[in-house]
Amino acid sequence: MSLKALYASATGMDAQQTRIDDIANNLSNINTTGFKASRESFEDLIYDQIQTPGVSNGANTIAPLGIQVGHGTRLNGIYKQFSQGELTQTSRELDVAIEGNGFIEVTLDNGQKAYTRDGGLTVDSTGRIVTKQGFLLTSSLTIPTTATSTTIGKDGTVSANISGQAAAQSLGQLQLAMFQNPAGLKSIGQNMYQETTASGAPSLVKPGDVGSGTISQGFVENSNVNVAEELINMIVAQRMYEANSKVMTTTSDMMRAANNVT
Description:
Elements: H1 4-28, E1 38-44, E2 47-51, E3 67-70, E4 73-80, E5 87-89, E6 96-99, E7 104-107, E8 113-116, E9 122-123, E10 129-130, E11 136-137, E12 147-152, E13 157-162, E14 169-173, E15 176-178, E16 186-189, E17 192-194, E18 203-205, E19 214-217, E20 219-221, H2 227-259
Antiparallel strand pairs: 1-4, 2-3, 5-20, 6-19, 7-8, 7-11, 8-17, 9-10, 12-13, 13-14, 15-18, 16-17
Helix pairs in contact: 1-2
């Protein structure tokens, strides 16, 4: 008796286990600022071509159907869904949320660039605006020690009111990085992504230009994980895992029955 059903159902169980792993990661990041939920993509495996569709069955007869038996499924990819998360007001001057497309570009300790949607910014000991992990923004911005308040406009312009000065002082421009294919970015943890060949090279633009989003000061973007949807997906994945397990059990029973034939 063929073992194809056993191997095919095993690939199905492995695929659903991966799906559960991904759902668990989504649910664990419900409260992660700027987190983007991911989705799994699967594809069927190679087929045994027992009879190819369209072959000749005789002098004047063409087979309208074929006999093609597949070998199961495998993970094709896991991609991020960059839909907008809800905004939460924090009233912190350096908290910013991106409404629309785009990422904040930062420089890691090794000098490489990374990109984030987490706008919970702060300052280091010298007044430079950094991420919560301490990474510097590529849009180099420094707040003077004499500043009494900081304003970040919708277009990313940053200015500060300086003690003893009537007019606000311009500090620079917060830019956003745009990618042709954001789903192709590499997740590296800490709410960070890095450029890949699939994502394309970033272009830095002024917020509100070239299809980029705008900046909302005093807000942060929540995770876009939909709890109800994730729980439904988890139930479906569990049922599919059980169904594939049942196939293995049924195939085993059939093989046992065949071996017991006398």
